[in-house]
Write a structure and sequence with these properties.
Elements (H helix, E strand, L loop, with lengths): L15 H12 L3 H10 L10 E6 L2 E7 L4 E6 L6 H15 L4 E6 H6 L1 H17 L22 E5 L2 E2 L4 E2 L2 E5 L5 E3 L1
Parallel strand pairs: 3-4
Antiparallel strand pairs: 1-2, 2-3, 5-8, 6-7, 8-9
Length: about 180
């Protein structure tokens, strides 16, 4: 079976607004983000280099290890809302196109089960670096099946009314022609 190709994310496409948001998030981490960062910074976890609040293809990842292509998200209670959970799912599928695996932890998991959280991060990173392939979920499109992120502009809205419900927060990706690519 042929391994699906992945796209490389473009570091030069980061908007000034996204960079500013990432800087602000670094200055004001949540309690759980600060705790997790204390274990990830300066290559403390298996000598892996993690970055925090890493801008990537129109999004900001809480923590990212480029070597393992692993994103770690720490979610507060808002992520349990249906519309936010759906947004998180779509965002994860998009980042999967770049070969990036996203793992999620709740604030409670990080604060109350810190060792278990760190063990899972170590395991996922080791598995990805060792080259042991994990199967591609059937609902994850191959690169090119979904469209490309190049030259896509992303807009953030406080909320957006969809056909059946409000989405809050909302992010919309628009291509050069003004056609919505991602919601």
């Amino acid at each position: 079976m042929r391994k699906p190709e992945t796209r490389e994310w473009q570091r030069d496409k980061v908007s000034d607004i996204l960079l500013s948001n990432a800087r602000e998030l670094r200055k004001n981490p949540t309690e759980s983000e600060a705790l997790l960062w204390s274990f990830l910074k300066n290559r403390k976890l298996n000598n892996l280099k993690f970055r925090r609040q890493q801008p990537m293809e129109g999004f900001i990842l809480d923590f990212y290890c480029d070597e393992a292509k692993l994103g770690v998200e720490v979610d507060g209670g808002i992520h349990s809302l249906k519309e936010v959970a759906e947004y998180d799912k779509q965002r994860t599928l998009f980042l999967n196109e770049f070969g990036i695996k996203i793992i999620r932890f709740s604030n409670k998991e990080v604060l109350k089960e810190t060792e278990k959280t760190l063990t899972k991060i170590k395991h996922e990173a080791s598995e990805r670096i060792s080259g042991v392939p994990s199967p591609r979920p059937a609902d994850t499109p191959l690169p090119g099946e979904r469209g490309r992120g190049e030259r896509t502009k992303y807009y953030q809205f406080k909320s957006l009314l969809q056909q059946d419900a409000w989405l809050s927060p909302a992010y919309v990706g628009v291509n050069e022609a003004g056609i919505i690519q991602y919601l």
